[in-house]
Design a protein that fits this description.
This protein has helices at about 1-20, 25-35, 50-70, 70-75, 80-105, 110-120, 125-130, 140-165, 170-200, 200-210, 215-235, 240-250, 255-280, 285-290, 290-315, 320-330, 335-345, 350-375, 375-385, 415-425, 435-445, 460-465, 480-490, 505-515, 520-535, 540-555, 570-575, 595-600, 640-650; strands at about 405-410, 430-435, 450, 470-475, 495-500, 515-520, 580-585, 605-610, 615, 630-635. Helix 20 links the parallel strand 1 and strand 2. The protein is α/β, with parallel strands linked by helices and about 650 residues long. The chain folds into three domains: about 1-385, Na+/H+ antiporter like fold; about 405-515, Rossmann fold (3-Layer(aba) Sandwich); about 575-650, Regulator of K+ conductance, C-terminal domain (Alpha-Beta Plaits). Helix 5 packs antiparallel against helix 15 and helix 7 (about 125-130) runs parallel beside helix 18 (about 350-375).
Length: about 650
């Protein structure tokens, strides 16, 4: 089995890399891996049953993630579109495909399963392609997402019904009885998991979060998903249902983003194995021999979905362009369609040749999706006989819960809270991420927009909409953590990044890591004191503001360097990095006397000033000649200042 997994992963890595180059989704690479390695390909895999076990866990984690993303407030805010367009699509397409299946000599139970699989669209591919095409904030996107939301909800009852259809195939009375019993068990499972999720899990995860242990958080997340799946499995229902319910409960809490980020690596790997096992069902020689049937099913599926979505959207008052665009975007078969087909195949509800044909249809339709989304405007223009592309962008307000053109505040200590208050006063959209569970819960109780999670995780920044953020504010004091976060967000966004630091010892390091601006607390505090002193001294407020602006624009150049005291509380590392001021008097016999600044060649330090006979020179040129009695004021890190002193006095540096 170990060799089988190595072979699969090696082949999958190569194909994912290849498919990325030709702009095809990774799902197709996994399916292709299954086709090549499966029984109808090169037969590289012997123990397929062991891999299917891991693949089933992938479905469990997928449903858990779906539950985390399932937002009841978001659903309610879009209820007219979700129920109208989404519900209409599922019912109309499902009924029509079921009728067509019966006419094609399938049992009605088989036709129902086929219809359930074909009506699904790919949430993962559609959302990803819309985001890459910068179409997420369009009316067409909002319509598409409303349909995808209802499809995701519809998966849950389908997962319950398919095993019942397999047990009592064709017997309507027994199926009705079994569905009634399943409904009772389902309600019990829902009550049990929701009760645990409402009153027990939040307290458990709060304690786990207080430990600040990433390992404990990850293991606890996996355990919750698997235990929830086990509960529904014991009740004779789908494991995926339990995982979905657990995710839905935790999705309303403050730990949603962290939970999703923690489970994503496991989900992605195991879902990859799941799609590989689906690809193994594809009998390529048989499909090629019977290619006309494959093409007919593909064309009927895509045209039916496009036409029905178009009609439903028009009935809801949408424009022809948006209605047709939505139909084109949702024309493919989705990943949950494969989940339903795999379940039906495992229960022997559908024959393998039919499953192979449907998998082939799904693969081809998915492969066409990136092209359909990229070219949908041109396709719509031609089909609707429009003489030229519409000039309007079709932009609509952001979807509920969608982050766009906002400020991300990383850290919710005193500084982060102050920033958030002013953003709220000015009506600037923002979101906050913090790792302290107590503070997060307190803020949530107070109605603040805050999420629990590790801001330095790439997955969490993506969930916070870093790609579309206006600016990112890093407020925590941990410089290394701030640098780590900068390295993550800079490749993802062009937003300005403002970083808070304690003093000026790490300003350059933070700028090198990608910070747009660095605000040292000690220097800003000094500037505030200066402004008060100048105001008290009678300096006009306009001149004070101009002076402060000048210092900030110059990155506090005039504030770097200070005289060290004998009772400094700085650590050795800080004293070696911070710039210090040091005055050196040139007595008779000093090396620098009679030489120019250029000849002395001091390194890593700057001349802040030179005092000669009571006159201070702040502009020191390279041709300036040192004389006896000059007081040289140097600025730089301690070790370089010491070397410069040795050079000025003795002509050497240690």
């Amino acid at each position: 089995m170990f060799i089988d997994i190595i072979l699969l992963l090696s082949l999958a890595v190569a194909l994912v890399a290849l498919f990325q180059r030709i702009h095809l989704p990774p799902i197709l690479a996994y399916l292709a891996t299954g086709v090549i390695a499966g029984p109808f390909g090169f037969q590289l895999i012997v123990e397929q049953a062991d891999i299917e076990l891991f693949a089933e866990l992938g479905v469990v984690f997928l449903m858990f993630s779906l539950g985390l993303e399932f937002s009841l407030p978001r659903l309610l805010s879009m209820r007219h579109l979700v129920l109208g367009l989404g519900g209409g699509q599922v019912i109309s397409v499902g009924v029509l495909f079921t009728v067509l299946g019966v006419f094609a000599s399938l049992y009605w139970s088989q036709a129902f399963v086929v219809a359930s699989a074909l009506l699904m669209s790919s949430t993962a591919i559609v959302i990803k392609q819309l985001a890459e095409s910068k179409l997420l904030n369009t009316r067409m996107s909002k319509l598409s997402i409303s349909v995808l939301l209802f499809q995701d909800i519809a998966v849950v009852p389908f997962l319950i019904m398919i095993p019942l259809l397999a047990q009592q195939s064709g017997n309507v009375t027994l199926i009705a009885e079994q569905m009634g019993w399943a409904l009772v068990k389902g309600l019990f499972a829902v009550f049990l998991i929701l009760a645990v999720g409402r009153w027990i899990l939040p307290a458990v995860f709060k304690e786990i979060a207080l430990t600040r242990s990433d390992e404990l958080f990850v293991m606890s997340t996996l355990l919750v998903a698997l235990i929830a799946g086990l509960i529904t499995h014991w009740l004779g229902l789908s494991m995926a249902l339990g995982a979905f319910l657990a995710g839905m409960m935790l999705g309303e809490g403050p730990y949603r983003h962290q939970l999703e980020a923690d489970i994503r690596p496991f989900r992605d790997v195991l879902m990859g194995l799941f799609f590989i096992t689906i690809g193994m069902l594809l009998n390529l020689p048989s499909l090629l021999a019977d290619w006309p049937r494959l093409i007919i099913v593909l064309v009927v599926m895509m045209l039916t979905k496009i036409v029905l979505v178009f009609i439903l959207a028009k009935l809801l008052g949408e424009s022809s362009s948006n209605a047709l665009s939505t139909g084109l975007v949702l024309a493919q078969m989705g990943e949950f369609g494969f989940v339903l087909l795999a379940l039906a195949g495992k229960l022997a509800l559908l024959p393998l040749p039919l499953i192979s044909t449907l998998v082939g249809v799904g693969i081809i339709s998915m492969a066409m999706t990136p092209w359909l989304i990229d070219c949908h405007q041109e396709v719509v223009r031609r089909l609707l006989f429009q003489s030229k592309p519409r000039s309007k962008s079709g932009l609509s307000p952001p979807l509920p819960g969608q982050y766009i053109d906002h400020v991300i505040v990383c850290g919710y200590g005193r500084g982060g809270q102050t920033i958030a208050r002013f953003l709220k006063i000015e009506g600037i959209p923002y979101t906050v991420i913090d790792r302290d569970p107590v503070r997060v819960q307190e803020a949530l109780n107070g109605g603040e927009k805050i999420e629990f999670g590790d801001a330095s995780r790439r997955e969490i920044q993506m969930m916070l909409g870093v790609e579309k953020a206006k600016s990112i504010i890093i407020t925590f004091k941990d410089t290394e953590k701030a640098i780590e976060l900068l390295k993550i967000v800079k490749p993802l966004t062009e937003a300005k990044v403002l970083v808070r630091t304690t003093d000026d010892s790490n300003i350059q390091k933070l700028h090198d890591a990608g910070a747009t601006d660095v605000v040292p607390e000690s220097l800003e505090g000094s500037l505030m004191m200066v402004s008060h002193v100048l105001a008290i001294s009678g300096v006009p407020i306009k001149r004070i503001l101009k002076r402060l602006q000048y210092e900030r624009q110059g990155h506090y150049n005039h504030l770097h360097g200070f005289y060290f005291g004998g009772e400094s509380t700085m650590s050795f590392e800080e004293s070696e990095v911070l710039e210090r001021l040091h005055a050196i008097r040139l007595e008779f016999g000093a090396y620098a006397i009679g030489k120019t600044v250029a000849e002395v060649k001091l390194k890593e330090v700057s001349y802040r000033a030179i005092r000669r006979q009571g006159v201070e020179l702040t502009q020191v040129h390279q041709d300036f000649i040192f004389e006896v009695g000059d007081v040289v004021l140097l600025c730089g890190p301690s070790r370089y200042v010491k070397r410069a002193e040795h050079c000025l006095l003795g002509g050497w540096a240690d």
